[in-house]
Design a protein that fits this description.
With about 280 residues, the protein is mostly helical. It is built from eleven helices and no strands.
Length: about 280
């Protein structure tokens, strides 16, 4: 009975704070910021990858970003992203690409703002520290994506060598598509832990952010599945928005994803508040 009461208190606390602190508006802000940061990030990353000789980065990056999205949502956007990224660019160190990195970091700042509100903490770090940290996040993500793209290019060769030397490993190798999905999922999980630990003000322990991350991953899976099923059943987006259908679908999908992400932070904060209240009760 006590567990039921505790669960209800935590859930009501998380949902109540999400509503009272304009969680829906923050989800909208985060969704639009993410969409606006996505293209600049991929342009910056592709240009850097080309400079480093990883010419196959564009297609690999699209797979890493969109493989975990439902096919109905990802396919039309991925085609447009590839069209943008395959335009030859030689301006790595010009203002254009530096601005792309800056705009990409705005997406990181949107994540920071939403998590600060969810965790109910006040930001005390300077603007320059926060912006530098956001740019470092973008740079680390870029280098990570470049490294993964190079790895995936050589993955079939490595797989053939391993299968030739170790026959028992063949059933476990799978296909390149499977490995892309696994790597993309691992990137998402690592990214969630990174932003929950380092972006908001204050400090959090690994176990204190775990419930919200598990909730986020499960809710993303359920939410994206339901939204994809809705798109399969109803075609109102196509008839209503015509040529803008793909972008509207992406905005709604990112809005759902953003709301769930913020709720994950709210859940962690609510659990921490409950445990702190319990610790203050004598006996």
């Amino acid at each position: 009975m006590r567990k039921i009461v505790a669960t209800r208190r935590v859930l009501f606390d998380a949902a109540g704070h999400f509503h009272d602190d304009d969680g829906w508006a923050m989800a909208s802000h985060l969704a639009i910021s993410t969409l606006m940061a996505l293209f600049p990030f991929l342009i910056f990353a592709t240009t850097l990858a080309s400079f480093l000789g990883a010419d196959a980065f564009a297609e690999t990056a699209v797979h890493l970003v969109f493989d975990t999205w439902p096919e109905q949502i990802a396919a039309p956007i991925a085609r447009e992203v590839v069209n943008v990224l395959t335009v030859p660019r030689t301006d790595l160190l010009t203002y254009g690409v530096l601005l792309a990195a800056y705009f990409a970091s705005n997406g990181v700042e949107a994540l920071r703002t939403s998590l600060n509100r969810a965790y109910r903490v006040a930001e005390t770090r300077t603007f320059w520290f926060r912006r530098t940290q956001s740019l470092i996040f973008v740079l680390i993500a870029t280098i990570g994506f470049v490294a993964i793209s190079v790895l995936l290019v050589f993955a079939p060769i490595i797989a053939r060598i391993l299968e030739a030397k170790f026959e028992w490993i063949q059933p476990y190798m799978g296909t390149i598509t499977v490995w892309r999905f696994i790597i993309a999922s691992a990137v998402i999980v690592f990214g969630l832990f990174a932003v929950h630990i380092w972006l908001p003000a204050g400090r959090r322990r690994f176990m204190s952010i775990l419930p919200g991350i598990v909730f986020t991953l499960l809710a993303w899976l359920v939410g994206s599945t339901i939204f994809a099923a809705y798109l399969d059943t109803f075609s109102s987006y196509v008839t209503t928005y015509a040529g803008l259908a793909s972008i509207m679908i992406a905005v709604v999908f990112l809005y759902i994803v953003s709301a769930i992400f913020i709720l994950g932070g709210e859940l962690n904060a609510a659990i921490s508040r409950y445990l702190e209240a319990r610790a203050r009760v004598p006996g």
